[in-house]
Amino acid sequence: MQYAHITGWGKAVPPLTLTNDDLATFMETSDEWIKSRTGISKRNISHVNTSELATVAAKHALAAAGIEGKDLDLIILATASPDTLIPNIASTVQAEIGATCGAFDINAACSGFLYGIGLASSMIKSGQNKKILVVGAERLSFYLDWSRRETAVLFGDGAGAVILEASEQEGGVLGYELNNDPDARDILKSSFGSQMNRFDTSSLDFYIQFNGQEIFKRAIQGMGSLSTKVLEKCNVSKDDVDWVIPHQANERIIDTLVSRMKIPKEKAIVNIENYGNTSAATIPIAICDALDKGLIKPGQTILSCAFGAGLTSAALLLKWGERVTPINTSDAKVPACEQTVLELIKPAVDYFFNKAQQDGR
Ligand code: ACO
After folding, report:
1. CA triplet 220, 226, 229: central angle to 5 degrees?
2. What total number of domains does the chain contain?
3. Which of 57, 128, 171, 293 is the most exposed place for a label (fewest CB within 10 A)?
């Protein structure tokens, strides 16, 4: 019997940080409002493409697993903000790391990384593949309308990656559940892509539109019910869960989720303060941070859950293997940016505030 274990992990965080106070220099908001309503203090804004972030994270994950790109037999890249749709950006990462295998992107929004891990674990357990790279990478700043404070303060850019390997050692991914609620497709969306109808050139403007309170409720319901389902399916009690690694969209969502599940808050890995919501990247970044801090111990049971546009949701249960330290390290990093973060985003900020004025908002 083959088990699917995480054997390598890595993240890539762009060097430019946008704090709540930076945001308050050009929009009506405050550190106090953002921090108390969301838990976020700062986020990273990327001057490089999503695939470059993904490549850096992938190189760290490969080094941590002690393998090379050529050892991989599949690459799954979860993103809703690829730098190119054709070709997929898994192929860009593949070229950079020298892999010769299948490679594809998936878009399940913020649940994408868990969809990817679930899929990869099934491929490994079926005997089809032995070493799979799964990446969650996003440059959500691409979608932001900086004049809309209700969304602009929430998101950030970044990437995280893991290597999933076949092993005879019991454990690894124990089970997963995926769901999607198509009735809620319209409560979280961007019109990006609607201009694919080239006979209708009415609008090239796109930004994230959402109903925050409705998502808030459905996120807790979706993550909660799938988490319960995966625990039951794997015959594991919630009391035996050592860590919950939830999607980081809002700290209050995480608080409500664990409180409803009657899991102590101390068991939840929360790092939204530093990154904001990086969509498909939040969970792999949180895994890296938890390992860096020495929180995850060999053999511990981890419950991870997510929700995203669709509305997708996912929950995954895993038993960590023996190794919690990297085999090797990589010196890959996101290059420095010569601009300040406010200089970088200024053209987009000016564009959207001018547009808001024209629209009478
Ligand atoms: N700064 C200051 N005031 C603000 C800001 C801001 N950035 N944003 C909104 N406000 C104001 C509103 O205008 C409103 O003012 P009013 O009372 O005068 O009308 C007031 O704050 C309260 O607004 P609410 O929308 O009721 O605030 P709420 O407490 O619901 O928090 C939030 C909003 C943070 C968006 C919350 O609903 C939320 O986190 N929702 C779900 C999370 C989410 O959707 N994340 C993105 C999902 S994407 C993904 O992960 C797939």
Report:
1. 135
2. 1
3. 293
